[in-house]
Amino acid sequence: MEHRAKLTAKGRATRERIVRAAAQLMAEHGVAHTTIKDVQAAAGVSASQMYHYFSEKSELVSAVVEGQSDQILGSQELALAQVHSIAELSRWRHLMVEAMRDKGCTGGCPIGSLANELAETDPPARARLEGAFARWQALITDCLTAAMARGELPPGTDVDRIALSLLAGIQGGLLLSQVHRDTKPLEAAIDTMIDYLRRLAPG
Amino acid sequence: MEHRAKLTAKGRATRERIVRAAAQLMAEHGVAHTTIKDVQAAAGVSASQMYHYFSEKSELVSAVVEGQSDQILGSQELALAQVHSIAELSRWRHLMVEAMRDKGCTGGCPIGSLANELAETDPPARARLEGAFARWQALITDCLTAAMARGELPPGTDVDRIALSLLAGIQGGLLLSQVHRDTKPLEAAIDTMIDYLRRLAPG
After folding, report:
1. Which of A90, B101, B162, B200 is most buried, by CB atoms within 10 Å?
2. ipTM, 2 dp
């Protein structure tokens, strides 16, 4: 953070270009298969520039985990800010399915993939990703709390646990959609949870 | 297959020892971080023995994907053969949660992890893992079909789609449990689906 505060605007732009290039390469080929040299070439920077910003691969991995978490959480925050009812959850589901379809069902969730690759080998990355998933769960909990306040769910529903279950369905749905090259698993996972919420409705 | 048929019993045992060592290293450190040399050392075989069975890493990866798929599907087949009702699904859920707890929530699903690492870089592995997930889904579908036959689910319930959704919950639940080092996400994912099935019950 301190390091970044000292960068000029141009320096920040270069650093961001490097992190974006690294994020893309790591999403395509995995963290292990991405070298500092690959990133340097993809970002179009010199070896000395690269070294100025990231002297070790671990620093680059950490910046990618932070960048991908912020990006996914940022877009989820925007989308979920529009959701105050179960019907609105269906619109959010539609956005995620379309995004997966647009990618031809290649690649899973960027932070899910990083979690899978780094959970056992990079403790700081695991801790950061744990925080990102907790924030994501909290965003879903807020939507379910709003739906409960509207009377769509019985008072006292354990919305935090249902949010965790919905997030698990999204992560597993994205992985299975990636493996099957088909959006069906993602659709089934979220639709089943939405149907569950409808069946909880009082009366 | 043809190659394997020609092996002696001793040769088969050596080959299996190599595949088991490779599977363990790949589960711990990822496929990319596991070299032929690491596997050779872990299996305690000579370089020429190693080369006799696996001349390229891709052959070893393929054998690990096949071995892990067979092992997971074999144990799921045994466990799910006991499940003919929604109540019996809870016992199966208990087994999976206990298995994750026994590992201290380290490592996710072996085939989910392989899928995440290989889906974009190894098309034959992706195809084989797709088959493994389809078989797993079919095993769950059989259980739900049995529950429907007992009258626990309304006739005509789309049990295949619910099975897919349950499998997504398991995969995402295992990943989140690994990241959080806590069985709660896996428990929430499966319990919510079991509660959903109970709420579908006629009458």
Report:
1. B162
2. 0.94
